[in-house]
Design a protein that fits this description.
CATH class of chain A: Alpha Beta
Largest interface: A-B, 37 and 26 residues
Helix content of chain B: 55-70%
Strand order of the largest sheet of chain B: 1-2
Number of helices of chain B: 5
Number of strands of chain B: 2
Helix content of chain A: 25-40%
CATH topology of chain B: Arc Repressor Mutant, subunit A
Distance between the termini of chain A: 15 Å
CATH superfamily of chain B: Winged helix-like DNA-binding domain superfamily/Winged helix DNA-binding domain
Distance between the termini of chain B: 49 Å
Oligomer: heterodimer
Structural class of chain A: alpha+beta
Number of strands of chain A: 8
């Protein structure tokens, strides 16, 4: 089967002073995309960086359930957590996301951060993931975008290559 | 913490939607204040105030000619914004490329 190369095809749009959206298509059923977001063993295989040493990956995928990702990247500990507001398999996941690196934020903090709405739709075997990230302040949006920039720089291209070789095998 | 716009802080200059509209309205041409007032339907004092911030950041240049002042966008000043946007987009893409690899593997495993 010929596979369309979708590498680097995510579309990012800043839609307001506090929100941005990502749209990405996958040649896979919607249910696999849903599982990759809600099963810890699968989350660990794509979220963050391949060099992450996972410390915690908790996912309670139901309304009111909590999630927390905590990992070590070199000497740096990176942790995020939040609560699910809506989980509808396989089409919709709405959750808060709080970065614990912010001053005054602890793993118990429920306020601030961002509200992520993941909409997963499948059509003719192609699944579209639409992510809307609504930040609670322009400062949070700026911080998310800035940290994205840093993490982009930290990614080791060797690991990416390794992944590609694995795939081709 | 409030950020004080400095002359080289193009991000602070672009944090205001009216200023982003002004940049877009000037485009790759030149425009006078009255043309911008008309194009954006915003009061003249507002346009002048925001243009002053854009000039301080270096994003907008002004060319006086007779009694007119022509404003234009200083493209290279947008460089840091473009670099930053590309890096963020790169990080987003890397994340979803890994998700793509994962679901492809799962599909092949038939799980």
């Amino acid at each position: 089967m010929t596979r369309i190369d979708r590498k680097g095809s995510a579309k990012l749009t800043v839609v307001s002073d506090t929100a941005y959206e990502i749209v990405r298509e996958f040649d896979a059923p919607a249910d696999l995309i849903f599982r990759a977001h809600t099963e810890p063993e699968l989350v660990k295989r794509w979220w963050g960086f391949p060099s992450f040493q996972w410390l915690e990956c908790t996912v309670e995928p139901w309304a009111g359930g909590r999630w927390r990702y905590s990992a070590k990247e070199g000497d740096m500990e990176v942790s995020f957590h939040g609560r699910f507001q809506e989980v509808v398999r396989p089409g919709r996941i709405v959750n808060t996301e709080i970065y614990e690196g912010m001053p005054g934020v602890t793993p118990e903090t429920e306020e601030g951060g961002a509200l992520n709405t993941n909409v997963i739709t499948e059509r003719d075997g192609v699944t579209t993931l639409h992510v809307h990230v609504e930040c609670f302040s322009p400062e949070v949006l700026k911080m998310i975008l800035d940290s994205g920039m840093e993490s982009g720089m930290q990614l080791s291209y060797d690991r990416m290559e390794e992944l590609a070789v694995q795939l081709a095998a | 913490m409030a950020r004080t716009p400095t002359t080289n802080d193009v991000f602070a200059a672009l944090s205001d939607p009216v200023r982003r509209d002004l940049i877009a309205a000037i485009g790759d041409d030149e425009a006078t204040v009255s043309e911008l007032v008309e194009r954006l339907d915003i009061a003249q004092p507002q346009v002048s105030k925001h243009l002053a911030v854009l000039r301080e950041s270096g994003l907008v240049r002004v060319r006086p000619e007779g009694k007119w002042r022509f404003y234009s966008v200083n493209g290279p000043a947008l460089g840091p914004v473009i670099d930053w946007a590309q890096k963020f987009l790169g990080a987003v893409n890397e994340r979803y490329d890994r998700l793509d690899d994962l679901v492809t593997e799962l599909k092949e495993e038939g799980s």
